[in-house]
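For reproducibility, we list the full input for the zinc ion complex.
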Amino acid sequence: MKLANVFKNNQEWITQKLNEDPAYFDKMGSGQNPDLLYIGCSDSRVSAEELMGLSPGDVFVHRNIANMVISIDLNVMSVVNYAVKYLGVKHAIVCGHYGCGGVKAAMQSADLGILNPWLRNIRNVYRQHSNELNAIADETKKYNRLVELNVQEQCINLLKTAVVQRAYRKGELKIHGWVFDIFTGKLIDLKIDFDSILNRIMEIYKLE
Ligand SMILES: [Zn+2]
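The corresponding predicted structure, in tokenized form, follows.
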């Protein structure tokens, strides 16, 4: 990958888009109306639009290390609030991936400096599900399961916010937990049953 190629690639992309639709950039400039909010990992292998076959304008995207939804992270909370309240997205997706370096790091005993408080949130997911995880002898299977459970917990973190609770209750927003398998390219819907999870936790987290 040469950085100079990026600008050449960009010019070729512009030409290709205009060939397909001469008004492509006029439409792009007129505003956005995406149906999807995608919260994924910063990992360079897990792109948002490309793996779903979608285009610019289709997805409102937030990415961070290990696709975390942390209540005091002003960045992710601003993205969620803007997407749900002002863009009116219909689906919020948390997408993790097998082979996630952030999840792997959280499974190991190592002082990673400024990453420690971030990764501690994943360690907390491990602690919450330690009975299930410790019963898995195979390290890769345990690692994959923590990736999945982390996605589930981040979806629940979305449901702890007032803006998501409001939209979810009105039936205007659906939450989805997905995992991208970087070894096969497959996108997997974890089919998490949020209604039954909500029944269990709402007496604690209900805000309005
Ligand atoms: Zn990752």
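The chain has ten helices and five strands. The beta strands are 36-41, 59-64, 91-97, 174-180, 187-189. Both points were considered when choosing residues for closer inspection.
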